[in-house]
Amino acid sequence: PLSAAANLRPGAEQKVVFITARVHPGETPSSFVCQGIIDFLVSHHPIAKVLRDHLVFKIAPMLNPDGVYLGNYRCSLMGFDLNRHWANPSPWAHPTLHGVKELIIDMYNNPKINLEFYIDIHAHSTMMNGFMYGNIFEDEERFQRQAVFPKLLCQNAEDFSYSSTSFNRDAVKAGTGRRFLGGLLNDTSYCYTLEVSFYSYMLGGTASAVPYTEEAYMKLGRNVARTFLDYYRLNSLVEGPLAPTPKTR
């Protein structure tokens, strides 16, 4: 029988990475990115094993299932843009948001759990590449620490653009998961929106656009997962040579 990972043993402190996707049902690339993350984390890859031993990943791959089922572009069955209702979600009108928010708050209030990352995956209709949105903080040191993960991801993923990554407190985005949870959680938690283009990415140093494919979206997801190895400096724990991330068919 497999022994429990150190981070899952009774009484162990858990570092949690919480990932959500598809709050906007028309943004189908977000599902492929999320699938890439999931497939990698449950694989036999030596990096995945180290990540499972040291981190707890909570993933809600589809926050708007009724909108997806109906073929809506942005709204739920009730006609709500769910990513504007994080501040006070209704269990009746926004049930998925209400459930996920309660789970996040329960983890935040649990002294044995450190909720260290929240990443909400979206797709962007006008910009190219993958990039992130983060929050603005008065604390300069916290602001600088928030930039570390996207910088590391930029080194791992050729289609991720740090120059397109931005940090804002736009009032229109106040009800988003990234903005609301960024204000709720403490200064050891980092909240991001991960955006990926609907259509293509530019490779560094070239002027040619490369069309995205399902595989390329999933590769970005795998690279997001790998970046946690760099962020937590766990590279020395990986057994054997670092093989490329496995292809997902």
UniProtKB/TrEMBL annotation:
Similarity field: Belongs to the peptidase M14 family.
Domain Peptidase M14: 1-232
Gene: Agbl4_1
Family matches, as InterPro entries: Cytosolic_carboxypeptidase, Peptidase_M14
Name the record gives this protein: CBPC6 carboxypeptidase
Record bears the keyword Protease: yes
Membrane-spanning ranges: none
Cofactor(s) listed in the protein's UniProt record: Zn(2+)
A single GO BP: proteolysis
Keyword annotations: Carboxypeptidase, Hydrolase, Protease
